[in-house]
Amino acid sequence: MFRNMNKNILLLLLCACGLLSLSILAGAAVGYGAGNGKIFDITHKITSELPIFNSKNGLGHFIRLVSSIKNGSLANESEFKLGTHTGTHVDAPGHFFQKYYEEGFDVTTLSLQTLNGPALVVDVPRNQNITAEVMKSLNIPRGVHRVLFRTLNTDRRLMHKTKFASDFTGFKKEGAQWLVDNTDIKLVGLDYLSVAAYVDAAPTHLIFLRSREIVLVEGLTLMESRQGSMVHCLPLRMVDADGCPARCILIA
Ligand SMILES: *[C@@H]1O[C@H](CO)[C@@H](O)[C@H](O)[C@H]1NC(C)=O
Ligand SMILES: *[C@@H]1O[C@H](CO)[C@@H](O)[C@H](O)[C@H]1NC(C)=O
Ligand SMILES: *[C@@H]1O[C@H](CO)[C@@H](O)[C@H](O)[C@H]1NC(C)=O
């Protein structure tokens, strides 16, 4: 193949290769650059089997073709219908506060700064919900703004079971209050459909969302993400939405 190639093109190619390897070396030197960090996808696939809060039957059919090549259309095109709290998703302040809903605190008002940046993945004790004592025992230092809590929910593979499990692990209201009072955490991520334990659903959400500074990310998959230092979470910029599915990744 090289035999037929014009000498100038070959030279250009060699230069390009040289530049490329130089930039890869430079990237490695600063531990940053062209795809160095391993990316963990911490977003669940949206499938009809996904569990839905308080439902036995899960998500079910949610997408359908409205025009298709098979039927003579130029292209395939589908429509989907999803609850705003489907799968891996964020909560807006308007989710639990009527006042905030009326004032327009929807998902478009959530801070991208909070949704993206250095994060800790923290394992919580498997034998209880997240109480004030549990939060205290985790010793999360001041200055940590984003924490993804991995719980028994991950071990139980709850997000992979269609039937909703109300006995999932989540924050008890005193645990949420302890976090608000004693840490700098502004992004709270958890591995089931709600950050709040079932029995404290309303009070825990109210405590977290009251200041409008804390962003809740629910339904994460944290199975493989043992390490990870940067989280990126991007919900759709959907006006009036009290929640929204988001694509979340963790970069090691
Ligand atoms: C394609 O055509 C068939 C037969 O008319 C109809 O039943 C089906 O719903 C159509 N599907 C789409 C995606 O248009
Ligand atoms: C397009 O739609 C047809 C059904 O009309 C389906 O069989 C096919 O897989 C679709 N193609 C793509 C690329 O989605
Ligand atoms: C957490 O709380 C739920 C009720 O919201 C309860 O069913 C469950 O057993 C608790 N989990 C643990 C590990 O104690």
TrEMBL record:
Gene3D superfamilies: Putative cyclase (3.50.30.50). GO terms for molecular function: arylformamidase activity. It is found in: Secreted, Extracellular space, Extracellular matrix. Its main location: secreted. The keyword Secreted applies. Keywords: Extracellular matrix, Secreted, Signal. Residues 1-28 form the signal peptide. It comes from the Eukaryota. GO terms for biological process: L-tryptophan catabolic process to kynurenine. Belongs to the Cyclase 1 superfamily. PANTHER family: CYCLASE-LIKE PROTEIN 2, KYNURENINE FORMAMIDASE-LIKE ISOFORM X1. This is Cyclase family protein.
